[in-house]
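Attaching the record inline, Q. Sequence:
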Amino acid sequence: MVRKKNKISEEKFIECKNCGNRFEGIYCNECGQKHNVNRLTIKSVVENIFVGITTIDRGFLHTLIMLVLHPGEIITNYIQGKRVRYMRPFSLLFIIYAVYGIIISVVNFYFPDISEELLVSKETFVSDSFDFYKDHPVVFSLIELPLMAWAMKIVFGKLLKSKFAYNYTELLFASVFIVCLETMVTIVTVPLKLYVLKIGNDYTLISWLLGVVVTAWCIRGMFNLGFMRSLWKSVLVIITSNFLLAFGIIAIILTLIVIGGVMIFYIPEPIRDVLLNILR
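Structure, as predicted:
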């Protein structure tokens, strides 16, 4: 009878995903994390973005240090539910973008002759073809997040099926951490970029190599890869994400052309004129 009671009381205890402590109630009495920490989903993305805009939670400096020294560990821990010690990734991303914007404004004031080139936070194979990228690098980076997640899902398809069961949303959060670190490196290397642009050299190759190294540094810890393999995989991730971006832009252009053709040939002229006036 006593054993049965002990068994029932043991079943009431919950193991904390963050620290491993067994506890009763809503919050862990050791680290303070909630007991109902589930897998990351699209709902998690929406909640993370909302909290990132409205609040700044704890763990800012710790998250920055861990992201620089052990990015793969922080990504893996966050995906596995060990989140209480880290800042929410979207909150961190918005803060880093704010700092980047301030730096760009200062550079624009003191170095107006080269500020336009500096607006490109990290060049890619197709960056010169898109003026939107040069004018809105932060917006472009946010668009790039889901593309990077899809690229990792494609490049690491076999590993995701056999060893690492990361879903798409978890890879999206991983992409946020990677972009955070890339933007931090961009901020730190602003003086180098100013010097290279001032002497008239092209910074594109340097920036692209930094992006490859940063991505490799992150995915090496995520997937337990060797140095050279992580570099090769990071190159594939960047190329794939750029291809997806180009494919998406082409698809949008073709869709607009088709819609325009339908409007010209199939919509009655009075209705077509009204729609054209609205678009103007």
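The chain has 14 helices and two strands. The chain has one domain: 42-265.

More tomorrow.
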